[in-house]
Amino acid sequence: MYRAARIVILTGAGISAESGLRTFRGADGLWENHRVQEVATPEAFHQDPELVYRFYNERRRSLATVQPNAAHLALARLEHEWGGDLLLVTQNVDDLHGRAGSRNLLHMHGELLKGRCLDCRAVRAWPGDMDQTSRCLSCGGGPMRPHIVWFGEMPLETTRIYQALDRCDLFVAIGTSGHVYPAAGFVEAVGPGARTLELNLEPSLVASAFQRSLTGRATDLVPTFVNELLGP
Ligand code: BJW
Ligand code: ZN
Prior knowledge:
By secondary structure, the chain is of the alpha/beta class. About 30% of the residues lie in helices and about 20% in strands. Ligand BJW binds near residues 25 and 91.
């Protein structure tokens, strides 16, 4: 179906939904009980750090109860068996792509299992709870915050991502609603001649910018797409 040497894949919360992690928007979403501004902005952290620490502590703990699904596993297999370049960019802060075996992976919105020092900005693994007493081991005392990109903050690794988009032959977006920029604009940043494909339970807000948009569950669509790409 596709002949592509360089592939960029963008994933969102929809790829982890069938593992049991809630998406952000819509009924039953993570933000159903929280206003976004209460938990996912630097201002919220400044005003009510306890609430924000608690929100992320709960989500960090929930990672121990979930496993990668068939879609995460298929993307890891694609990376290992694909002859060309493959860059996986995830907006997700869970660790399911890594646990599935993906290695050429960028977490553009940060990672739940990491913390960042507010003084020296060092980023460290942080598997347990975090609160106002949590301290940095790199500079010996700075306060820690979740290593999460909140609204109004700069996403991570954008230079590398835009370079890969410019050079890619195929861009695929999986399970992301197209609400949040800059990720929602990646489809417009691909180089000339690149093919674009969206895989989602329902068309995203930016579906019309893709050459193809397939609707269905990630655990069905992604393994089928990978099988077609890798061939018999
Ligand atoms: C399934 C499925 C199944 C379900 N199978 N699919 C006005 C215009 C344009 C931009 C702005 C604006 N005003 C402000 C901005 C910028 C702002 C922004 O985009 N705001 C919008 C709300 C308008 N963006 C920022 O502030 C970003 N920074 C920035 O822009 O810096 C400047 C800059 C300039 C130029 C270049 C680079 C930078 C930072 C954004 C940070 C986002 N952070 C969050 C929270 C992280 C913390 C946390 O986890 O709590 O990241 S927001 C939240 O949304 C989270 C996600 O990564 C992100 C995207 O959500 P996602 O993944 O799409 O999930 P959902 O729930 O929305 O959708 C799920 C999808 O799955 C749905 O489509 C379902 O159909 C599908 N699905 N089950 C397949 N089984
Ligand atoms: Zn520090």
